[in-house]
């Protein structure tokens, strides 16, 4: 079972969006109507470059991404917005299956989540390690490889359009917990099994 992080286990998509928008405007950028959805699923290098090339942030891509991540770390230090039922769901699933995280979040933030929750997740992969972020399947394929299983033998749990596309492209059985703030595209939801909340996951596997 491979979990996305942002939007599935922590209610962080809004935090990311607010921090990126504020950071962009503070550094000469102009937020566009599509910027939020465009960046969902991008790897750190990808969205750092996007902030510069498409939003107009007057920094290097590396400076932009480092600045945003530092602000996210500060926000998490005050409050890590774990989604209700997520920790119990992961623990219940981990009793039955090997589990992993495959996230577009940088490794440092995945570690914060695992340190705070103490969850038994032996494999955690950031798309920073991959050639491309979601909707490319790379991060899911790498997580399956590190679990030592075929992608076809994996479940994936996602919340966003790009994340769902990535897991589908990896050839996994995909479960969607749609993000209420940024609902996935209906044509993608039609291809997966939809759950109303992460708390429903263990029961959906019986």
TrEMBL record:
Domain of life of the native organism: Bacteria
Pfam families associated with the record: Hydrolase
Gene3D superfamilies for the chain: HAD superfamily/HAD-like, Putative phosphatase, domain 2
PANTHER family in the cross-refs: 2-DEOXYGLUCOSE-6-PHOSPHATE PHOSPHATASE 2, PSEUDOURIDINE-5'-PHOSPHATASE
Protein's UniProt name: Haloacid dehalogenase
Protein source organism: Lentzea flava
């Amino acid at each position: 079972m491979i979990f996305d992080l942002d939007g599935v286990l922590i209610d962080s998509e809004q935090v990311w969006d607010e921090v990126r928008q504020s950071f962009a405007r503070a550094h000469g950028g102009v937020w566009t109507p599509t910027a939020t959805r465009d960046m969902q699923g991008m790897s750190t290098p990808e969205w750092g470059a996007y902030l510069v090339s498409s939003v107009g942030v007057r920094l290097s891509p590396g400076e932009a991404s480092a600045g945003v991540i530092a602000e996210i770390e500060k926000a998490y230090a005050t409050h890590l917005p774990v989604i209700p039922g997520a920790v119990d769901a992961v623990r219940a699933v981990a009793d039955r299956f090997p589990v992993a995280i495959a996230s577009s979040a940088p490794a440092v933030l995945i570690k914060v989540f695992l340190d705070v929750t103490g969850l038994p997740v032996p494999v955690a992969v950031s798309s920073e390690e991959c050639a491309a972020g979601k909707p490319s399947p790379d991060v899911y394929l790498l997580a399956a490889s590190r679990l030592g299983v075929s992608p076809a033998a994996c479940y994936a749990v996602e919340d966003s359009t790009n994340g769902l596309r990535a897991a589908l492209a990896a050839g996994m059985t995909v479960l969607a917990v749609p993000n209420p703030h940024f609902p996935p595209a209906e044509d993608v939801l039609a291809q997966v099994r939809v759950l109303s909340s992460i708390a429903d996951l263990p029961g959906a596997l019986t």
